[in-house]
Amino acid sequence: MVENVLGEMLKEPVSIMGCGRTDAQVHASQFFFHLDIKDAWDYDLLFRVNKMLPDDIAIFEIIPMEENQHARFDATQRRYDYFIHTYKDPHLNHVSSWYPEKNLDLSAMKRAVSLLTQYNDFRAFCKSPDTYLHTICKVSSATLFTDTKGERIRFQISADRFLGRMVRLIVGKLLQLGKRELSLDEFESYLVSKITPKVLDVAYPQGLFLSKVTYPYLDIPMRTTFSAIGHPEDQWLIL
After folding, report:
1. Which of 108, 142, 208, 219 has the fewest CB neighbours in a 10 Å radius?
2. Which pTM value belongs to this model?
C-alpha cells in the first residue's frame, strides 16, 4: 500500500525497507522505513501521501538520511507495549486484548516481569527458535502497569532486537501466572532451561504495539502521549 502510493506520487517504482514486520492485527505507534529516491520533489509530499493512504496508516515525518543508514539493521532499541482489558468494551477491542479474567494475581505477574532483565537468552519464548541465528536478547527494561481498578493492564518491554511474537508468548505465560495456572518458579524455569514449553499460549495480536524504535543517530519521541484509547501515560500505575 505505502509503496504503491509513493510510487504514484513520485512517478517511479518504489521499494521501501521497513524497520521490522508485524503479525496481522498487531499495531505500530512508531515505525520507520527508508527508500532511495532519484529526484527531489517540489511539493508537499507528506500531505499528499497521507491524503491517499487509508485511515489506519499515517506518515508523520519525511527525514533525509545518509546513503548507508538502514531502517532495520541500524536500530539499537525497540520498545513494545501490550494492552489488556478485563471487561468487554467495543471501543477497546481493536487496540487492546480482552481477557475476561477477574482477580488476576498482579503481584505474581509483576515478579515474573522483573525476571526478564536478568536473563539474556529467550529461546523458550520463541515459537521457532531454530529459524533464527540465535535467541540472545538484552532486555533493558520490563514493567507492568495497571489502572486504579486493575481492569486495564499494560506490559512494556524494551530490548536490543525486534521481539515480534516473543512478546505475545511472554504475555500468554504472564496471564497463566495471573490465573494461578502457572507458578513463578515454572515461569523462571523457562528462562533457565531455554526449553520452549510444549504448549504455547500466544496472546491475542490486537493488544500489541511496537511503540518506539531508537537509532544511534535518531531518537524521536512518540507522536502521542498516550497509548490505547483514553489512557494518558500519567494514569497508569507501575506495579
Report:
1. 219
2. 0.89
